[in-house]
Amino acid sequence: MIQLNNIEKYYANKGVKNYVLRLVTTTINQGEFVSIMGPSGAGKSTLLNIIGMLEEPTYGSYDFLGENVTSLNERKRIELYRNHIGFVFQAYHLIDEMTVYENIEAPLLYKKVGSSERASRIADLLDRFNIVAKKDLFPNQLSGGQQQLVGIARALAAQPSIILADEPTGNLQSAQAEEIMELFKKLNQEDGITIIQVTHSEKNAQYGNRILHIADGVVKEDVQVG
Amino acid sequence: MFRLNLKIAWRNLWKNKGYTLINILGLSIGMASCILIFIFIRFQLSFDEGYKNADRIYRVVTDWKYTAFDDYSAGAPIPFTAAAKNEIAGIEKIGAIAKLDDIVHVKDNIGREILKSQEDLYFAEPDFFEVININWKYGKASEALKSPNSVMLSEAMAIKYFGSIQNAIGKSITVGTKTHLSVAGVFQDMPQNSSFPIKIVIAYQNLFNYYGNRDCWDCINSSLSSYVLLKKGLNKSDLDGAMARFNKKYYKDKKIEGNQVNRLQPLKEIHFDERYDNFADSTIAKGQIYGLAIIGLFLICTACINFINLNTAQAVNRSKEVGVRKVMGGKRKQLIIQFLTETIVLVLISLLIACIISELAIPAMQNLFKNQISFSLFGHPVIFLFMFLLVVFVGFLAGFYPAMIISGFNPALAIKNKVALNNNGLNLRKILVVVQFTITVILIIATIVIVNQMDYLQQKPLGFNSAAVVMVGMPGDKMSKDKRSIFKERVLKIPGVQLLSYCQSPPLSQDINSTNFTFNGTKNKDFEVRTCKADENYFKLFDLKIIAGKVFMKSDTANGYVVNETFLKKVGITKPEDALGKMINATGINIPVVGVVKDYNDKSLKEKISGLAISADRNQYWQAAIKLEGKQLLSSMNQIETLWNSTFPNNIYHADFVDDRIKGYYESEHIMGVLFKVFACVIIFISFIGLFGLISFVAMQRTREVAIRKVLGASTLQLVKMLNGSFLLMVFIANVVAWPMAYLFVSRWLSGFAYRIDISLWPFVLAMFISMLITLITVSFRSYKAANANTIDALKYE
């Protein structure tokens, strides 16, 4: 599903290249649950951003679903966002001015999903995550864990084939974090959604089935779990 | 502390250069407009200030109430002054003064003429200067004007004629052909802001060389006026009874037409009452002054709104600073003072720039008023007071609200940059933007309508052809009159000259002579007929269409009237042919109607066509209308001037084109049009830079939201639409609010014209289109940038 070949990313500063990623080559298949681990500044988030097409690599090639997406025009990238990729952020990034319901609805509006279809999908998600009672609340009226649930619900609304999560539990207490990781695991196993997460925690990484260890921009280890 | 505040203020302004520039630009332009408006208004309000006993000085005016209309004149009957002096008890002093123009000749010691010029002459009784006090450089009015044939000059005239004040005393000047006057006094030049632009004052007795009839109570001429000083402690109402008795005795009991009465008008109202003429030919309605003041207020308010919007918007960026300061123990009051200091610094910088802009704009402003008034920025010390008040007003209006908001942040939230400005519902910023654009749209609509009306006035067919017709003034003395036929003969020989007609005035003229009359033996009570004297060539020259009968025969005196259609309508005749042969008696003798002329506009298009009767009268032709061929205009004009000067060597040549003269009647509308254009541009500019600032802020504030939406699959176009939406809505609401107000203003202004454009929908739609389009461009420019910004920067952890 994802094929990275010799991906490099560096920032040139006064002729000196500061490498963030060096020669990253890896393949991620449909249905995998990959955790990217490593110390701060290792390049984890950059790698995830490149996979999410939020950043372009300086060098190397990237195929997504068999198509070269190394540098994609905006229209095509938006197509991928609408249909294949869902993002989950550490800081949730819900839109403060919109209710829970409206937040989940937003990607569906961009995808031009019909209104009855929209209503049923949102109802389904609210039900599944046990947040039906909260649908008319605003993000700042929810706890962090609840906000992240909404964030995940929003990412799932467009029925993506892959979810990219950047430290999804970084801002959460451990009990809430466990709940979220269980959810990810369930999504991966029951719905077959590919998940790539960046995490600090060894414990969270154990929920997945593969771990990429990164240090100083280089993939040091690629281990299968479970 | 204060110095520190200043330093920090300066650094902050420097840090946010973009917003600072927008603020300064808007404020300085707004303030410059206010300063210019203030200079103009102060000049107008300062008219006739500073006379001794000013509150007891009155002018005598005359009012009429006819059944169909009211009429007003700034004049009083000649016998009024003497009669009032004896019969009205409350009067301390009363003095008559009259104005007319004639040619002044100045000769040197050996009798050679060194100078001749056309001048306004004032004939005054010595008592006039007991009412209106002026400064004497030499002599005294009470002495100098006692005996006939004495004259007093202003300083400037004395220097112009004789080189110096000392030289002028005792010298003589000649007025007209035979009145020799000796200089008996010199007075200080009158200021520009005076309704008495007196330069040459002649003893009152000499007036009767020009006016024969001294005892006529119903001969009112606005040039013959009378000024009154009341006794100490009295005011106008104390004299009501005496005036009523006086009016009854001289007018009602004598059965004088039109319920004529005399009335006292306070000195301070002379410049502001447009119903009455004055010597300076300059009046301005208080309404216009208030209108200008309101526009000035609008301008400064829109500039302040920019400021408030941008500053509250920016407040979030400074929340951290506020939080830290509060945690360190800063009181709210201190923070408010700090933010106000910043505002005041900005306002002061703007004031400096505003002064420069004003100084640069003053020549253009003088040009607008044909350089008749000289303005200067610091011409009067009161400007400093105004500037001080302006700074305080703008500083507080613009600075106080943002300072309150910013200083009110909760420190704990502020440090984390987590303060939220209320973004839901009707917040103040949105209301302010709507107010700002309402003002803008009103001005745009008004400008469009005014410009259209002016175009309409210029293009409307007037019913006569005045192209390439030049009016040349003709001397009125007997000798010159006898030379007219020779002059005409010679003028017609000049190549390029087609026709010449001696007449009183061109077809459209504001010099109006009207009289009551009997028509076919019955006295008319509904209206006065306007009389126009012209020779038989007048009709051909101006291309006036005769629709019944014919033009009167060539004659030196009236032998038949040509009347217009309006006259027929007013006297109730439907078929033009029926009017022929009917008798009009306006001068004491019955003269038949010989022809009917198709209606043409005889007054400015502010007024309707009047009932008109044209007849010949050689003694009342003041001008020659000369029709030229377009191609050789200049050379023909030069030859006419040479011929004129050699034919009438004692007089001064004066000529102007009919079209220019007609344009002159719309001078104040023209000025108004220019002012509105300028102010509309200024306000559009201010509003839109404000809008640009605001969208910049909104885009910045919503960066994160934009980024989230982008990864959710929003396209750039969708994001731009989202960011633009609320602004377009605000401008749309502003349009809706502005329309009825603009309609009221515009329809009131147009009602001042008898001939006017219909108010159609399109100026409104156009204003909406313009405002929406500029909004769209301004806003899209910035929101496109925001929508295209790098997503990842916005989504980094906070």
Q: How would you characterize this protein structure?
A:
The complex is a heterodimer of chains A (226) and B (798). Chain A has 226 residues and is of the alpha/beta class. Chain A is built from 7 helices and 10 strands. In chain A, strands 6-7-8-3-9-10 form a 6-stranded mixed sheet. In chain A, strands 2-1-4-5 form a 4-stranded antiparallel sheet. Chain A starts with a strand and ends with a strand. With 798 residues, chain B is α+β, with helices and mostly antiparallel strands. Helices cover 48% and strands 17% of the residues of chain B. Chain B is built from 26 helices and 24 strands. In chain B, the strands form 3 sheets. In chain B, strands 14, 15, 16, 17, 18, 19, 20, 21 and 22 form a 9-stranded mixed sheet that branches. A 6-stranded mixed β-barrel of chain B has the order 3-4-9-6-8-7. The model of chain B has no long low-confidence stretch (mean pLDDT 86).
Mean pLDDT of chain B: 86
Instruction: Give the CA-CA distance, first to last residue of chain A.
Output: 21 Å
Principal-axis shape of chain B equals elongated
Report the C-alpha radius of gyration of chain A, rounded. 18 Å
**Mean pLDDT of chain A, as a whole number?**
90
Count every helix of chain B, treating DSSP H or I runs of 4 or more residues as helices.
26
Number of strands of chain B: 24
Structural class of chain A: alpha/beta
Work out the radius of gyration of chain B. 34 Å
- Amount of beta strand of chain B: 15-25%
Q: Uncertain runs of chain A with pLDDT below 50, 5 residues or more?
A: none
Count of DSSP E strands of chain A? 10
List SSEs of chain A in N-to-C order: EEEHEEHEHHHEHEHEE
Q: What share of the residues of chain A lie within helices?
A: 25-40%
Which sheet architecture does the biggest sheet of chain B show? 9 strands, mixed
Question: Could you describe the largest sheet of chain A, including whether it forms a barrel?
Answer: 6 strands, mixed
